[in-house]
């Protein structure tokens, strides 16, 4: 193998044209004004799915939602527990508790009073201060009882508010 | 001694052994649900079907006796198809609710479905849903999960002998019940949940408590009586969740030959006192009372306020024992391990120079009314009484009674080991003694009254050996760490001995080595086996 020196064309050898071509991206953004920064919490990200409809139903001037960048569909936000009517889907099998790398989930099972199910969680706690939103719990769940929503607003005045309970996780909107 | 061929391998077995047993002993796996060494084979589950040359149909390996010149095949297509079809049939009404089921993780059906089962079922009919039945206060029975292996029925027929369980109804409606209005008696009920290959029989104390794949099983012994039954203590973090009987035969699928885990006891060791590998319900349930409940948290010194740390208290106790000299008396619990007993007697004899030593005599453990007519029974003495007597003999110490010690008016009294209420009546008589030190892990009237309390470890928190009623030295293993400020009993005693005489006793295995040299009955123990830290089935839940 011989290492021959590459022969450049004239336009390449001058460099300037290539530099201008690279700069054209920067120059384009200099003239086209698009807003990327969002002044949270006055402004919020556009939320997809049901939440958008709910917000639009409440506030008719919520047209601004459409102009903001959108949260991607598989965003991993606050967790939600699913219910079939009154009956919780979770069977307290502790798969999520086992798989959780951060020990964020604590479950205490009990005998169910409903004939459709044998056991249900007596306590289901999810500590958002420990959670890293990896989504393993959703993958591990054999009953599809836990999902992650696009709710990214995780502010609380006190730490205990960030420990989600069974009932609070039911009310998390999509 | 018939010689026969199995999967092309020639093996010689004892006369009268079945094909299944001889295959398993030689590392060839034949799946089974219903077979159990302690019962007569029933040939019920049809899982162990094998092909035998010159026999037109497949034979159940658990009921076929191995004979000379037999040629057995376990891996032919015909056998594989029969296994797969049998599993499909068992699963027609078995709910696949493994997430709900307590057995998931140690379930034989789950394991075999993975290995031999069909990938789909031809049955399209909906599965039966049935409510669980309470067979006794301790046992819940789930008919929909039951695979009708009748192990529990045969346990009550062959081992207990009372035949309280029976199969009622037929076909898909079959279920295991007691006679109408009757319940199973407390005493030896819990064993049927251990031998159930699926999650049909669950004990109330463990039902829904913890998933088995999160638990770490430790081989240890039951410390309740002199029988010294073999048990597994399953624990997670600081908590013991359940006690199971440990079958010295190859029993659970986790120590099946195919998993390359050799059984700890190479030869089946059947306990001569309890006469089987099964354990009583007291032994099964006592962990909650003893380990997980409230214990003494930190050392207490009621004579000098403010000096409640370990170093000060140990120095204080050592000084007192040194001062009292031969006026020191010791009271020893038979629940103390051999090593602790050795250290305690060394302390009395060589450090204090006293031979006033007494062992608490627990009243003879009552045999249960049911157990009398059963083939099972319990030991009648406290666990380590025999071992302590042997060690005392080698020290030339005569164990005297409690009353004699109180009569002698010692200046300093040292009480070792769990007293379990036996000293409560005596506690009142100790008023005259100016100094009482107690080493115990649970609060009692005695610890309330004592001048110095040193929190020790419960039996699941320490290493040691016990000598059972038949003279066999058995290993007690550490299952969980001590949660509070307590210390290992042997460490406390060794520290006091070091403070007084400057001799270092060492850890439990070093003390056991000394016992081997000095006490005649310990001469022939297998030191390596007893000191081996043997626990398998680590927490399997973690993915990394």
Descriptive account of the structure:
The complex is a heterodimer of chains A (about 170) and B (about 550). Chain A is an alpha+beta fold and about 170 residues long. Chain A folds into two domains: about 60 residues, no CATH class; about 100 residues, Alpha-Beta Plaits (2-Layer Sandwich), CATH 3.30.70.3270. Chain A is about 30% helix and about 15% strand. Chain A has a three-stranded antiparallel β-sheet. The longest helix of chain A is centred in the first third of the chain and has 16 residues. The radius of gyration of chain A is 25 Å and the shape is elongated. The model of chain A has no long low-confidence stretch (mean pLDDT about 80). Helix content of chain B is about 25%, strand content about 15%. Chain B contains 16 helices and 21 strands. In chain B, the strands form six sheets. Chain B has a six-stranded mixed β-sheet with strand order 14-19-18-17-15-16. The longest helix of chain B has 15 residues. Chain B starts with a strand and ends in a 13-residue tail after the last helix. At the A-B interface, α5 and β4 of A face loops of B.
Topology:
The complex is a heterodimer of chains A (174) and B (544).
Chain A: H1 10-14, H2 16-31, H3 50-58, H4 64-67, E1 79-81, E2 83-84, E3 87-88, H5 95-99, E4 105-111, E5 119-127, H6 136-140, E6 146-148, E7 163-164, H7 166-171
Antiparallel strand pairs in A: 1-6, 2-3, 4-5, 5-7
Chain B: E1 3-6, E2 9-12, H1 19-25, E3 49-52, E4 59-60, E5 71-73, H2 77-90, H3 108-116, E6 133-134, E7 139-141, H4 151-160, E8 166-168, E9 175-177, H5 191-195, E10 201-203, E11 216-221, E12 230-236, E13 239-245, H6 281-292, E14 300-301, H7 310-324, E15 328-332, H8 338-352, E16 356-359, H9 369-373, H10 385-394, H11 402-407, E17 412-416, H12 424-427, E18 436-440, H13 445-449, E19 452-455, E20 464-467, E21 473-476, H14 489-501, H15 508-518, H16 527-531
Key terms:
heterodimer, A: 174 residues, alpha+beta, Alpha-Beta Plaits, 3-stranded antiparallel beta sheet, two-stranded antiparallel sheet, 7 helices, 7 strands, 16% strand, elongated, B: 544 residues, alpha/beta, Ubiquitin-like (UB roll), Rossmann fold, 5-stranded mixed beta sheet, disordered C terminus
